[in-house]
Amino acid sequence: MTYRSKVLLIYTGGTIGMNRNPHTGALEPFDFEHLLYNVPELKQFDTQIDTYQFDPPIDSSDMSPRHWTDLSHCIADHYNDYDGFIVLHGTDTMAYTASALSYMLENLTKPVIITGSQLPIGQLRTDGKENLITAVEIATARDEEGHAMVPEVGIYFGGHLLRGNRTTKQSAEEFNAFESFNYPHLVNAGVNITYHRERMLKPDWEKPMTPHFRLDNNVIIFSLFPGIREDLIRHIIHTPNLKAIVMRTFGSGNAPQSPWLLKALREGTRNGKVIVNISQCMQGAVEMSRYDCGFHLQEAGVVSGYDQTVESAVTKLMFLQSHYPDDPDTIRRLMGQSLRGEITV
Ligand code: ASP
């Protein structure tokens, strides 16, 4: 008997399944039946596609760590029953969800492919059909030994599969909505689907996947800009319960050399806050020793986020804080290490 692959299709919401509200004209989440009705092509796959729907489906702007925990539970509970998982998700926060799941699903040996669309699936020019159909293809692909071709969390969109925790939404307009600026594409889907296996994570196939469910969101992201005010920065750094800060700096990780800024950062570090340096540039890495103004940050205890995306840094901090609640030094050390291929070391 030939093997029939099985995929679990998890619908969280997002444009792909939305309909236009006849009264307001705005797009709002609709139900899953509507979505599947619009993609009869799925029946042509020799794959059993089971479905699970968030109730209610949400616009991804409403995504939260609670939903990531639900997703992690859903995948972990059904892990042995399926060859792969597809998460249908709004594009706005897709990169955050992909990053969070990459940390929450340790030693992943099966594909978790997140996709969505820029135009609803019921519209004639939708990009949702191609995204969904190719996501199914990728989620069921195996090598000669029967191992999944993509044992990681990826975002499939506009003809490319990207590592989830390397990805950023780059366009609210183009079908090619995502890019992983600091890591090459994992899969290119043109006439042929090309898997770049040398770029994929290498799990331990003998070991089980370990799911994690806890996240601690006592973290904030702020961007530096010329003219940033001392009182506001001090306010953030001295916020009670705040454990970590993703500070978006200039270029290769540079900041103004104002003594008050360095003093505030030093105080934050001394109080146990983890301050991570992530560049405002999409491409390239933080190198704090390149310029004097970056070097001073290092002296103030700021740690480098290297070439991580901001989405990866903030979700990694949530993940690490839940594991090492009173151990900022360990968090600082792990922020500089690659846990799931999120930084180039
Ligand atoms: N606002 C929508 C969402 O993120 C946009 C989309 O799906 O493309 O849910």
UniProtKB/TrEMBL annotation:
One MF annotation (Gene Ontology) recorded for this entry: asparaginase activity
Catalytic residues identified in the record: 15, 15 (o-isoaspartyl threonine intermediate), 91
A biological-process GO annotation: aspartate family amino acid metabolic process
Superkingdom of source: Bacteria
Stretches assigned to the Asparaginase/glutaminase C-terminal domain: 218-335
SUPFAM superfamilies attached to this UniProt entry: Glutaminase/Asparaginase (SSF53774)
Keywords in alphabetical order: Hydrolase
Span of domain L-asparaginase N-terminal: 6-198
EC number(s) given by UniProt: 3.5.1.1
Pfam families (UniProt xref): Asparaginase (PF00710), Asparaginase_C (PF17763)
InterPro entries with a match to the protein in the record: AsnA_fam (IPR006033), Asp/glu_Ase-like_sf (IPR036152), Asparaginase/glutaminase-like (IPR006034), Asparaginase/glutaminase_AS1 (IPR020827), Asparaginase/glutaminase_AS2 (IPR027475), Asparaginase_C (IPR040919), L-asparaginase_C (IPR027473), L-asparaginase_I (IPR041725)
Binding site for substrate: 60, 91-92
Family of the protein in this entry: Belongs to the asparaginase 1 family.
Protein name: asparaginase
Taxonomic lineage: Bacteria, Pseudomonadati, Bacteroidota, Bacteroidia, Bacteroidales
